[in-house]
Amino acid sequence: MLRVEQVTKRFGGLTAVDHITLNVGDTGITGLIGPNGSGKTTLFHMITGFYTLDRGRIYFQDRCISGRPPHTISRQGMVRTFQHTRVLPFMTAMDNLLSAAPDQAGERLCSVFFRPGRIRREEEAHRERAKEILEFVHLTPLSHQLAGRLSFGQQKLLEIGRVLMARPRMILLDEPTAGINPTLIRHLVNILRGLTARGIRIFLIEHNMPLVAEICEKVFVMDSGRLIFSGLPAEARQDARVIEAYLGREDRAA
Amino acid sequence: MKKMIFLLLGLGVLFCWSPGMAESDEITVGAVTPLTGKLAVYGEGFQQAMLLALDQVNARGGIHGKPMKIAFEDNNSTSKGSVSAIQKLITIHKFPVIFGPAASSNFLAVCPIAQQNRVILIGAESAASAITRCGSYVFRVFPSDRLQGKGVAELALDLGYKEVVLTYVNNDWGVGLADVFKEVFLKNGGRLLDEFAHDEGKTDYRSEVLRIKKNDPEAVVNLTYIKEGATVLKQAYENGVDVQWLMGSASKSPKLVALAGGAAEGVIGTYPTFSQQTPQYRAFKAAWDRKYPGKKLPIFGEYNYDMVKLTARALKAAESMSPEDIRTALMEVSKGYRGVTGDKTFDANGDVGAAYGRWTVKQGGITDYP
Amino acid sequence: MLLEVDQLTAGYGPVTVLHQICLELWDHEMVCIIGPNGAGKSTVLRAVSGQLMPRAGRVMLEGRDVTRQGLREKAAKGLIFIPQGENIFPNLTVLENLEMAGTMLQDKGILHQAVERVWAAFPMIQEKEHDPARSLSGGQRQILALSRILMLLPRVALLDEPSLGLAPLVVDFIFEEIAKMNQTGISFLLVEQNARKGLFVSHRGYVLELGRNRLTGTGQDLLNNPEVQRLYLGG
Amino acid sequence: MAYYAQLVLNGVIAGSIYALFAVGLTLVYGVFRFINFAHGELIAWGAYLVLLFALPPISLPLYLALIPAIAGTVLIGVAQDRFVYRHLLQGHRITLLIASIGVSYFLRNTLRLIWGSDLMTYGIRPVRGIQFAGLSITPTQLLMAGTAVLFLVILFVLLTRTLLGKSLRAVADNMELAAVMGVPMQRVRVTVWVLAALFAGVGGFLLALDTNLEPAMGMTNMIKSFAAVLLGGAGNVWGALLGGLFIGMAENIGVAFFSPGYKDFISFALIFLLLILRPQGIFGVLTGMR
Amino acid sequence: MDYLLHILIVALIYAVFAMSLNLELGYAGLYNFGHVAFFGIGAYTSALLSLAGLPVPLGMACAMVAAGMAGALLCVPALRLTGDFFGIATLVFAEMVRLFFLNERWLTKGPMGLPGIPRPSWVGTGIAAMPMFLVLCLLLTVSVFLLVRWVAVSPFGRALKVVREDEYVAQALGKNVFSLKTRAVVAGSVLAGLAGSLWAHYITYISPGDFTLNETILVLLCVVLGGKGTNWGPVLGAFAVVFFQEALRFLPIPADLGRLIAPLQGMVYGLALILIMLQRPEGVISEYRRSRVC
């Protein structure tokens, strides 16, 4: 579904992402792991169009998306979250969701004035969907609360709900479990599983290794901007290069 | 929110409580005067001259025994402020006569309002020729630009300057005057080496001065205000531009010399003149010195003085305090009226004629040019 | 005991990152904090150094409570913090960077001596004395950042990920230098992602997981502990 | 030819004053990351305070009046920070900008309240310019250029030779790290305001000495200095110097080709173009301060 | 009574002006400090066209179109800037527009200004026109108010808020940020053009001096005082500011102290801006008040 080919990004003298080639989406949940500063988030930024590429191409559903602005990539069905939760704090949870509905006629100023009926119907439908999603992420009682007043974990859920609202084919999650408690993590895992059951592909950056091992069918491991491993999570644990990337080199340390 | 409501209420109370309403035992006229903003420099002088005339009117028994008063309303030197001010004077106080604001742009903004409300508007220092067409309720005791522009052109030609550089302040007064000057000057065989406007209120005119210097003229016609004029003169002097400066009436002020110092020496200008030998002028000067000892005569002070005196005369002569009657009386009493600034007979458009005199700066003082 | 961290709780905004962390650091000791990403390692150093005010718990330096003291006060008492990543001033020259590092030294003479110490230890950055620090290589930048320890000669240095973004050979060099400084009597509390490396040079180690103490022990013990590997890689 | 040379010379001198103002703007921007709209009012206050101390009842000679006047300007600069900006630094930069517009409006009108809107002057007699190779320059202009150079040199020495100056650059470079290293932040921020106000005050005095005083004198000059700041790259002191010179020359030479009514238009258009062509360059803060 | 009508008309025109700025500043988070430029463009377009003999309503429509086009023109370069730099660029743009009015005498008569701008024929002329003009202003203000509110609660308004709150999120959610902002600025400019043309036809005389930075500050004050991002805020702010200005006329101030009023007024405005920023950056009416209750 998502193909990344020979992608490179440099910041000054530092090569943050170095000739990465990977293929995501033939399985439900794919993980991207690696130590701090290995270029995972940079890669995400490039896939979603927030960073330009120095080299390489990216294909999504066999269409080249590299060089496209973020909003067109998002409209093609690849929606992301951010490393630090970014809900819209001064809008209600409901509005947070509604604003994510894709391709709204009401966002064109002309239709606001000239096709009010259609917009009302459309809004109605979005509202219904938003209610379902709120139910799905267990936020229904908070739908009219300002998003900024939700707890950290609730904001995470809201963010995932917002991504869902956009009717994605693939979602990119940047550290979805960072900073939330174990109960909520279980809840989140269930939600993610539910999504894959609906056929939505998930590509996530995650540091919680047991979790990655549990839910990911495939992982990519990055270190210093390079792809050092791709395969099953269980294999990754055995892989010398991965261990080295995480723990340091055996020969020097022993 | 509560605070806001209180604030609004407070404002409302202030608003409804309007002091100085015209009471029957005194006769009040309104005045829109630039007490703030960029023309405030002149506004205070206008006000003092008007108050001087008022004192004299009241000392002689006012209007049929009732004292005359002037209600000053500030216009912040803007047209917007002028409109607000005159609206207040007309509709709250219902004054039949209003002295209009200085600067033609402000005057032009208010004159349709006065005309439509049938309230008499009198200007003491607005020169734009467009004012002539303002309407039957609009008068001015100051001569139109047409006369002054012609005057400067004649001055230049009389002094033998056929080729000059023309510069003028980039506002209504400067542009209007410059247009008339150009018309007359060119028609009579003059030639402009260069012509450009300079911005109002700047402090650095060096590049403009250099532009003058480049053309190396014998004379420069500089139609501008005091501040701008003084700065241009000073910076021209510093840059070694030695030309004959020809200026208009708006620069004729001791303040020009104070600001420009020696650089103002030798400037020749025109101004709508009136003899300073007349008894009217001497009386005015003496009265001024008594009331404001040590203060120099303000620019256009005489016109403001005349305006008030003439108005008082008309109020006395009017059959009633309705604007129509006052208007008739005004036309009547102005016939052959000789004020400090000469003959103030209104023509059909409410304009007055004028003789133009010439002034010059000599040894740090402003005197008549022989 | 030189430094004792007792039941430290800290976080940012609504998020609590550290939950009742306890640490000890003895004289001349080098202690390494390891743990997977998001374990709160850097936050420990921020909270101990005074950059981040802890919500609860105590920080004791040489038996005195310094929990509520700021960076400057703690630095004056001999506890300094070297943050990770952008830890030099790129537009200042190398020398000026050192002067800033020694900004707490009141006396010009002492400052001069301190700079001399750095030059003696790291001649390679002396060569670039008057170049802007942005022209240094990654390893040189890290050395420049570490020079602060040499200048101030503190009792305790808190060091956050000195190996971040460096090539393996350079990492070895940096750790050698840290070990040398340790031998002169400076105690180190080190946060390291490169667990083997960190534990190898350290006397003892603490393993954090999700903001809580998980394991502790000597470097060797932890290195051989399968639990550590599990923490990092799951399974 | 001499005409254009003279325009360039005048431009250079006007530009050196713009540079003085631009340095202050750039310092504040470099450390606090906001555009202090009220910088112009420091310029005007500097000039007017000299007048206050030079006129009766105090009647100090100009050069002596300068001392308390500059002290007063510095006080205003520090007070701006103390009473307004400090409380807003945590918030949005726009809040700061609006607040600084408010401060600017407040200070300018206070000036009007005290001295009126009228043009004022120190009453220096006009002197013939010194003629040199067909160029003319007045002693005041010489003094302006000289003072500007002197102050910029002093700034250079301060920023590169003193610990305080280096701390200032360090804070501009990386505020968090500077705090970790124990750089006295309070002293640095006060220093920034003192320097900004000092340069604005001295520049304002020179400007008034050369021309006249009026309440809006700071406003127009501040906008032009901002053009200089952008031209040189925000935060770059030497860039600000070059930018100031360029703006000064551009608007002076422009008069030869355009109507003088468009004099300000030239620098405004330049700002507009620069903002649009180099929006990235704006963030090159304090680079090349050496 | 006409005086009260006058104040009401001015306040209504300012309310339209403030609402147009609020569309950009409150909803889209664009700090346009040069909004007076569009007010001026509207005023001049309408005045010039109706002086040339075009019916007034047609002139007003053209004014809105012209202001909108100018807004679009400004967007192309300026929207690449963020936050305060956008503010400075717009501020500079407004000054450039004013200098254009001042210097292009063939078109605008420069500093002479344009006198005798006609009022709509059905409104009538002279003193009788005032109540009718008030009705016109009231009608337009109410329509603009409803229009802005309609837009604000529409998905378009919601999308603008997303852009204001977090541009990155907006992009990640498939919003074309540039296009949304452009539409906000164009819509704001069109309404500012309407306010400007109303102004021109009301005052019947305009000159470049009417469109300075002071006007921008005044309308900015209206918006932030009333409460940005709210429907009623700008209207309330406009009325408060206009009434405050006029109320000053009634203070019994001795004639020789008269020159102190304008600076004092300016000081109050400046201080108001500072205090609002310090104490209540969201203005008198808070956008979030209602949600805070629940």
Verbal overview:
By secondary structure, chain A is of the alpha/beta class. Chain A folds into 2 domains: 2-87 and 153-253, P-loop containing nucleotide triphosphate hydrolases (Rossmann fold); 90-149, no CATH class. Chain A has 11 helices and 10 strands. In chain A, helix 5 (116-136) packs across helix 6 (152-165). Chain A is globular and about 65 Å long. The model of chain A has no long low-confidence stretch (mean pLDDT 86). Chain B is of the alpha/beta class. Chain B has 2 domains: 19-142 and 300-333, Response regulator (Rossmann fold); 146-273 and 357-368, Rossmann fold (3-Layer(aba) Sandwich), CATH 3.40.50.2300. Chain B has 12 helices and 14 strands. Chain B has a 7-stranded mixed sheet, with helices on both faces. In chain B, strand 1 (27-33), helix 2 and strand 2 form a beta-alpha-beta unit. The longest helix of chain B has 20 residues, at 40-59. The radius of gyration of chain B is 22 Å and the shape is globular. The N and C termini of chain B lie far apart (70 Å). The model of chain B is unreliable at 15-23 (pLDDT under 50). The longest helix of chain D has 31 residues, at 2-32. Chain D is mainly α. Chain D has helices at 2-32, 39-54, 62-83, 93-115, 139-161, 163-173, 175-180, 185-210, 217-232, 237-257, 263-277, and strands spanning 130-132, 135-137. In chain D, helix 5 packs across helix 6. Chain D has a two-stranded antiparallel ribbon with strand order 1-2. Chain E has one domain (2-212). Helices cover 72% and strands 0% of the residues of chain E. Chains in contact: A-C, A-E, B-D, B-E, C-D, D-E.
Throw out a few tags for this protein.
heteropentamer, A: 254 residues, alpha/beta, Rossmann fold, 6-stranded mixed β-sheet, C: 235 residues, 26% strand
Major interchain interface with per-chain residue totals:
B-E, 52 and 48 residues
The CATH architecture designation of chain D is Orthogonal Bundle
Major pleated sheet of chain A = 6 strands, mixed
What spatial order of strands do you see in the largest sheet of chain D?
Answer: 1-2
Rounded average pLDDT of chain D: 84
Shape of chain A: globular
Number of separate domains of chain D? 1
**CATH level-four homologous superfamily name of the largest domain in chain A:** P-loop containing nucleotide triphosphate hydrolases
Task: Give the tally of structural domains of chain A.
Answer: 2
Tell me what portion of residues of chain A adopts beta-strand conformation. 15-25%
Specify the structural class of chain A: alpha/beta
Radius of gyration of chain D from the CA trace?
A: 19 Å
Q: Termini separation of chain A (Å)?
A: 42 Å
Low-confidence stretches of chain A: none
